[in-house]
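Teaching assistant's notes for section 4

Start the section by putting this record on the projector. Ask students to predict, before seeing the second block, whether Trans-aconitate 2-methyltransferase will look compact or extended. Collect guesses on the board.
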Amino acid sequence: MWDPQQYEHFRDARKRPFFELLARVPVSAPRFVADLGCGTGDLTLTLAERWPGSRLSGVDSSEPMISEALRRPAPAHVRFELADLARWQPDAPLDVLVSNAALHWLPGHEALLSRLVGLLAPGGVLAFQVPANFEESSHRRIDEVRALPRFAPALASVRRGHAESLAFYEAHLSGLGLSVDAWETAYLHVLPGEDAVLQWLLGTTLRPVLAALGPGEEQAFLDTLRPLLRQDYPAAAHGTPFLFRRRFVVAVRPS
Ligand SMILES: C[S@@+](CC[C@H](N)C(=O)[O-])C[C@H]1O[C@@H](n2cnc3c(N)ncnc32)[C@H](O)[C@@H]1O
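Reveal the predicted structure now:
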């Protein structure tokens, strides 16, 4: 379902939140670090540079993404694994658990976060970032096309991404005894190229939708969506402005 090349298209804009998240992780020498939903692994490898003395696991449930990660030259203390992060079990408690732009694909954040906190060592840090763009025009337009009789039956069981509120994350994680730093940032990306917002969505949000439609209906879906996005996101001479909100949480387990 995932296409590493399409995902890498807007790499710089997608990287920035990862570094803004990691800048708030107050750990100098962790023993064991995991990056859950690590994708193509390039950001995981920046963790290996930051913490050269730590063991590092990158985990992703997509075969093409993990294959891409495995192709990268990596130091011996880095390992990439194909697994569902909701079930993945590390062989030792984690000092840092990072998840960038992945948890919104999973349902049930209350139970999921309780489970992830249970994987942390005393003093361990859970740091995650999720898109919070689901009410923006781009997503509403996708929903509108999904609901058309031509596409709705094939897409009925395809989940939308979902993020809880900052208040929810703060309340749940502090209820589990962690100290929580939570914030939201809105990025105004100016995307280059033609149909830039569609190209952006093709890297992430549209992947499960197109996979469920299959090649026959994929083109018809995109042909219906494209003019709606052009209307809502007109291209300027210098690019297409695209507002994107993201939520960040860094939570520290007591020692
Ligand atoms: C938007 S990409 C983010 C990749 C990487 N973290 C980054 O910031 O570049 C989302 C990734 O989450 C992965 N993912 C989604 N659901 C997952 C699950 N249940 N278990 C593991 N990985 C998952 C996808 O395969 C995809 O590689």
